[in-house]
Amino acid sequence: MMLHGRSRPSRITQKVRERDERVRANLEQYGCGDRYIDVIISDFSNPLWREGVEFDAIITDPPYGIRESTEKVESKATSKQNTRTKDMPHYPSTSHYSLQQLYMDLLHFSAQHLKVGGRLVCWLPYHRDDYTNEMIPQHSSLVLVGNSEQPLSGLTSRRLLTYERRDIHATDDSEQPSCEFPNSYDFRDRYFNNAPESRTERRTRKAEQRELGRIEALKRGKIITDNKEAKNNLNKSRFN
């Protein structure tokens, strides 16, 4: 749910977040800085936009559950006794937001808020062995006008899907999108469990390699220092 933060980047090869790594800088790079208005952080499963709001285009890269978590704010049926004081921060409970439900919500939102002729552009991740045309989400108010593949690895790809809002009189809640996936399809689970080694095995192997490197360095007489504080100070200095 964090669109931009000053913490450690999610990219595994990047240790420090760059100062210009933000949405506004991206628009300025393409000469569209004057079109930047603001950033809103919200839970997409509970849209905050009022009825009647229309957009010319919606361009999005939904989370796949790999670097970003796929979660939504959860409303609990039973409430516990509130022990939180007014000065304490509130962290809402979250639950899993399935890829299928996310795309159904995205298409339905687009059908409600795109202008006629407006376009929705989004990425759809999948395991290459699983792909069929039936996996492409469909909505009665949206026409698929573009579908191109970008390989991510030998096992996974993603497709850039472009939909156009059709000229119809109205859309209502009865026009639900159809979104077909293999039974119990979970891109995140397929991504990690079909790798040559599991995530736990990879972390264990790398930890063992680091420990061996530390022992070898001590044998050579090297003084081992903790660079965590130095990295934190470097990260803070980029935003001061």
From TrEMBL:
Compositional bias of kind Basic and acidic residues: 198-212
List every stretch annotated Disordered.
69-92, 193-212
A biological process (GO) of this protein is: methylation
Query: GO cellular-component terms in the record?
Result: cytoplasm
Signal peptide (UniProt feature, chain positions) = none
Keywords, comma-separated and alphabetical:
Methyltransferase, Transferase
One example of the protein's molecular function in GO is: methyltransferase activity
Q: Superkingdom of the source? A: Eukaryota
Say if the entry is tagged with keyword Protein transport. Answer: no
Name of this chain's protein:
tRNA (Guanine(10)-N2)-methyltransferase homolog
Q: Which gene encodes it?
A: TRMT11_0
